[in-house]
Amino acid sequence: MAGKQRIYKARIKSTQSLKKMFRAQELIAASRIGKARDRVAMATPYARAITRAVSAVATHSDVSHPFLVERDDVPRVAVLLVASDRGMAGAYSASVIRETERLVQRLEGEGKQVALYVAGRRAVAFYRFRQRELAGQWTGFSDAPTPQIADEIADALLAAFTAPVEEGGVGEVHVVFTQFVNMVTQRPRVIRMLPLEVVEGVAAVGEHDALPLYEFEPSPEEVLDALLPRYVRTRIYANLLQAAASELAARQRAMHTATDNAEDLIRTYTRLANQARQGEITQEISEIVSGADALASS
Amino acid sequence: MAQLEVDVVAADGKVWSGSARQVSAPAADGDVGILAGHTPLLSVLRPGAVRVVPVDGGATLSWHVDGGFMSVDSDQVTVVVDSVAKATTAAATGH
């Protein structure tokens, strides 16, 4: 009988230490979210300047650029998947992987070959377990991406996009990441990165109705040549930042739920332990009473 | 006197922002100096020094940049740089 009580006590203890761990994870995620949001805010002026410049070039010159035109000579497409390095974030990685699988299926249904580029250890493990080949992988930064990492990824994707057919060139680049809507909602999103469609920011130029006539130095083509890779890098960096903020928010929420569940479990086990103790006392009393009765009657 | 509104931004944050009398930057075809009223310009930058003369008469600010681009549009100057070495206060000879 005393064994039952001991089992409950042990369970309560282990659940309590789990709860402490969940709570710590939750607090860590919560404190990092602020930093992730700061990073988004820090990257905004650069992104805005680049976008404005690109749309200025696009509206003022009729130059064409390899990044802007569709390639129809290759059946290969690249997909970049941005997931997390660590678990304990609820369905965060699972849902973005599911979205990627759906996209891959759709693209393969259109008769295309998909080259997968993966960022985040969880997703890399997912594909390695299934023995699927990856064209590129990056790990170890998912909750605090740097511009350097974004540059590395963007360079790999741009190289694939500009490579000739026989060297594994791709005709399109898609990115699957998780958009940070707010602390409660994070949505997996698929965007087509290349070829570029420069639409955002064209209309928003401020108080001027007409865009001024720019002088391009040295020439519109070369300005575009310098701008577009930077534009792609900025977009990828922005996507990584969004994914990082989403990961942390998902982790915070998952850990909060886990803490609540641990509390519930502790409460249930405490009740059971109390019941077991009372049962034991009752049994002991009845044993004593019946023993005394037996002695008295003999 | 008209003045320039200058923003110097890098990928991971704003480097400097404020009003200036003059900006000089290493444009693709040679260094350019920008004063108020400059014609709209969009230029690629070479590695070199970007210098800003603040409007309040302070010392000239100078950064070494590895590349980037610059846009000038109705006295709004935006210098976008890839990487930037720490701002140094150059000897105020540009005045």
TrEMBL record, chain A:
<keyword id="KW-0813">Transport</keyword>
<comment type="function">
    <text>Produces ATP from ADP in the presence of a proton gradient across the membrane. The gamma chain is believed to be important in regulating ATPase activity and the flow of protons through the CF(0) complex.</text>
</comment>
<dbReference type="InterPro" id="IPR000131">
    <property type="entry name" value="ATP_synth_F1_gsu"/>
</dbReference>
<keyword id="KW-0375">Hydrogen ion transport</keyword>
<keyword id="KW-0472">Membrane</keyword>
<protein>
    <recommendedName>
        <fullName>ATP synthase gamma chain</fullName>
    </recommendedName>
</protein>
<dbReference type="Pfam" id="PF00231">
    <property type="entry name" value="ATP-synt"/>
</dbReference>
<dbReference type="InterPro" id="IPR035968">
    <property type="entry name" value="ATP_synth_F1_ATPase_gsu"/>
</dbReference>
<dbReference type="InterPro" id="IPR023632">
    <property type="entry name" value="ATP_synth_F1_gsu_CS"/>
</dbReference>
<keyword id="KW-0139">CF(1)</keyword>
<comment type="subunit">
    <text>F-type ATPases have 2 components, CF(1) - the catalytic core - and CF(0) - the membrane proton channel. CF(1) has five subunits: alpha(3), beta(3), gamma(1), delta(1), epsilon(1). CF(0) has three main subunits: a, b and c.</text>
</comment>
<keyword id="KW-0066">ATP synthesis</keyword>
<keyword id="KW-1003">Cell membrane</keyword>
<comment type="similarity">
    <text>Belongs to the ATPase gamma chain family.</text>
</comment>
<keyword id="KW-0406">Ion transport</keyword>
UniProtKB/TrEMBL annotation, chain B:
<protein>
    <recommendedName>
        <fullName>ATP synthase epsilon chain</fullName>
    </recommendedName>
</protein>
<dbReference type="InterPro" id="IPR036771">
    <property type="entry name" value="ATPsynth_dsu/esu_N"/>
</dbReference>
<keyword id="KW-0813">Transport</keyword>
<keyword id="KW-0406">Ion transport</keyword>
<feature type="domain" description="ATP synthase F1 complex delta/epsilon subunit N-terminal">
    <location>
        <begin position="4"/>
        <end position="83"/>
    </location>
</feature>
<comment type="function">
    <text>Produces ATP from ADP in the presence of a proton gradient across the membrane.</text>
</comment>
<keyword id="KW-0066">ATP synthesis</keyword>
<comment type="subunit">
    <text>F-type ATPases have 2 components, CF(1) - the catalytic core - and CF(0) - the membrane proton channel. CF(1) has five subunits: alpha(3), beta(3), gamma(1), delta(1), epsilon(1). CF(0) has three main subunits: a, b and c.</text>
</comment>
<dbReference type="Pfam" id="PF02823">
    <property type="entry name" value="ATP-synt_DE_N"/>
</dbReference>
<dbReference type="InterPro" id="IPR001469">
    <property type="entry name" value="ATP_synth_F1_dsu/esu"/>
</dbReference>
<keyword id="KW-0375">Hydrogen ion transport</keyword>
<comment type="similarity">
    <text>Belongs to the ATPase epsilon chain family.</text>
</comment>
<keyword id="KW-1003">Cell membrane</keyword>
<keyword id="KW-0139">CF(1)</keyword>
<keyword id="KW-0472">Membrane</keyword>
<dbReference type="InterPro" id="IPR020546">
    <property type="entry name" value="ATP_synth_F1_dsu/esu_N"/>
</dbReference>
